[in-house]
Amino acid sequence: MALEVIDLALFISGSNKDREKVASELRNELSRHGFVKITGHGIQEAQVAKLFEWVSSRERPALKGTFAYEECACWQNKAFFKLSGKDKAAIAHPGGSQPQRGWSAVGAENSSKLYQKGLLKSQIAEELKDARCDLEYPNRWPDNNIVPGFRDFMEDTFEKMRQVASLVMEALEVGFGLPPGTFTNRMTNERNSSEFRLLHYPAIDVEEIKRGKVSRIWPHFDLGVITLLFQDSVGGLEFENRNTPGTFDRVDPGNPSELVVNVSETLQRWTNGDMPAGLHRVSLPEGLGDRVTGVVPERYSVAYFCKADRDCSVGPLGQFIHHGIKPRYEDISALEYHQQRLQSAY
Question: What is the Cα–Cα distance from 247 to 219, expressed in whole angstroms?
Fold first, then answer.
């Protein structure tokens, strides 16, 4: 099952009829699959190309135990993955339930506990996140002398991704027939925990994947409102086929400037389950599923995790509580919910 590709250009500059058509398509596809692809979002292909130019490979460490092997860092990592352990440790995220900032070493997160889906133990390895200025939970930046231009490019691209996320949520307001601001006023970027990550999946032997003890990333849901993702040409991202629960369909890498959008837990909660979060995983790329030997090539992707304002409720919105339907989720602030979920990951 291939994901639909929706052009947002008509929503941005089209007639009211065009806007309503695009918004309806977006709502329908995200409600059906939890995933969709978008183009015409305003981020130029040249910027995406420059983004991936910062990425470079590094030697894969030895794998230990049962875990999903993933290496994460934020935008502009042509130099970052080559930094010494000492330089990375200088901006390390301390762990725990607070919003994630800085670099996290291998084993710092346990995503199977985070998503509480009874899956095998899995872990996320390295990451740099969230590119805006946050006085409450400040970013941890590498020295500009070590990675020149890192911060400037990070902040610029973060803002562009934030604008796209706001555009998608504005379209969903139209698609649901909601008053303007129903979603977007709850994700103002003034007090939210949105995160920005560049993900590196090092090369790995097919045999290790086939043993069932290791995965690139186990099936999971994201925590925020929506996730926006650019990916390279390697492939491996899969989303659950809801017609046959427990099975997964591939997300074709497609054009580099295509953005993959997936519904996350907060949006499911706001809509009281009307728009379920998209279950997804990263598995073997196409063409390697039948192989028993060989090497899975390294993979890179870049994700913007759009989240709600920290003091905003992530309980069901009033517009989705009607005709005797009861709230399915408790009324809790975004920060409390975020902390509860992250606490299980460390």
Answer: 11
DSSP string computed for 254-312: -STTPEEEEE-HHHHHHTTTSSPPPPEEE-PPTT-TT-SSSEEPPEEEEEEEE--BTTS
Enter the pTM of the model: 0.81
Phi first, then psi, for residue 233 (nearest 5°) are -90, 0
Rounded Cα distance, 186 and 273, in Å? 18
Furthest CA-CA distance within the chain: 60
Residue type, position 8, single letter: L
Q: Name the DSSP class of 82.
A: G
Q: Which of 127, 122, 132 is nearest to 72 (CA)?
A: 127
Each residue's pLDDT, cut to its tens digit, for the chain (346 residues) gives 789 999 999 999 999 999 999 999 999 999 999 999 999 999 999 989 888 877 654 333 333 333 233 434 433 344 465 556 666 566 665 554 455 555 544 444 444 444 443 333 334 344 433 233 455 666 777 778 877 887 888 789 999 999 999 999 999 999 999 999 999 999 987 776 788 887 878 788 887 877 776 777 888 899 899 999 999 988 989 999 999 999 999 999 989 899 999 999 999 999 999 999 999 999 888 877 667 678 888 888 899 999 999 999 999 999 999 878 899 999 999 999 988 887 765 5
Only one residue has tokens 């390279």, namely 232
Residue count of the chain: 346
User: Is the C-alpha dihedral spanning 157, 163, 168, 169 positive or negative?
Assistant: positive
DSSP class of 306: E
Report the DSSP beta bridge partners of residue 306: 226
Structure tokens given for 132: 């805006």
